[in-house]
Sequence to fold (426 residues):
Amino acid sequence: MSDIRVRFAPSPTGYLHIGGVRTALFNYLYARQQGGKFLLRIEDTDRQRSTPAFEKEILDSLKWLGLDWDEDPVRQSRRLDRYREVVQELLSKGLAYESEGAVKFKIPKTEVKVYDIVRGEVTYDSQEFEDLVIMKSDGFPVFHLAVIVDDYDMGISHVIRGEDHLPNTPRHVLLQQALGWKSPKYAHLPLIFGADGTPLSKRHGAVAVAEYRNKGFLPQGLINYLALLGWNPGTPQEIFSLPDLVKQFSLKRVIKSNARFDPEKLLWLNGQHIRALDGEVYERQITEFWKDKIEPVAEGKWRKLIALYRPRIRTYGELKEQAAYCFSEPEYKDLPLTAEIRGNKGAMELLGQLQEVLNHLGDFEDVQVLDQKTKQAAEAAGLKPKDIIHPLRFVLTGGTASPGIFDLMSLLGKKTCLKRLAAFLS
Fold:
């Protein structure tokens, strides 16, 4: 049994965000790869801002992502007596003192060496540090104290957290030494920046995991992308499942430089995961996603629709946007192209002839018949198939891109196609 124990320690003062998930993920991967334990600690001592709703959202998001923790979560708000006991010990040893109702730790003046798994050895001169407040006047511990007491009591072997905590580490090491405790090993992860080179925030788009879930991202797409933010597998492989990541992950391959968040790469990766799903799983998930968001669609048509757009969508949420003309009448927003087609006598006559041909067909179930008859109409007029397919696509969709035109006609059905042709020709 491995003695590796790591923890993810969110504060329930807001939603779980992308940076937090990446920290949780790297802790999870390290624990699972080493056969150790991945623990959860709820840092809820901020009484004003911590809420049960945020805590529930964090736990739900972790479960949705597949990052299951071992043991019951530890809650700091239930450990206040323990923090006070440690403060008392420091006071009785003369290593801390009271100041204006608060308690401060006397920082020993020395050189502090921190060995970091990602950055190597980092040295600090504690002469530059002021004495550290460890308990506020209201009797609540500050982060620095609570964190080291919890890590010690939980038997944490490795603290894997964001680089923004690196300057806190020498203070934590000094506190651990004062209490006669062995320090855990540290690994500080690179920060995540937006494309503009500033720390990731709301202005760069969605930051909370719940927003990605609501947009129809897959947990495996998000996990795959976040694993590659600050970690390099050392191979050209880009598509990973969670078990793949567990096998290949290593803290030694965490990159020192800040990671750059690229929404387009995330969308591309998510699309790859959608296409890799088992057909039944895809159908069940996308149907569940859209269940209460759109007017019901006949089952046969819905199955055809989601199969047709599967190669094109990158999230479940893109379906309605990509296939807008399947849910409502097309809007001809490209006015110059509308005018060009309407002003082209040959194209309009050809569309009229096609309308006649289609009118005499049965239902539009047979895609090959639609293909054959449409091309025959073009050839009969001495034109190429593209001379009719491009205007026809525009008439039926209001745009210039769609899945295969004959698959689309079969999906829309005879009545809708003829209605749109008649309306455009009139």
Notes: The chain has a mean pLDDT of 93. DSSP finds 19 helices and twelve strands in the chain. Residues 42 and 336 are 58 Å apart (CA to CA). The longest helix spans residues 18-34.
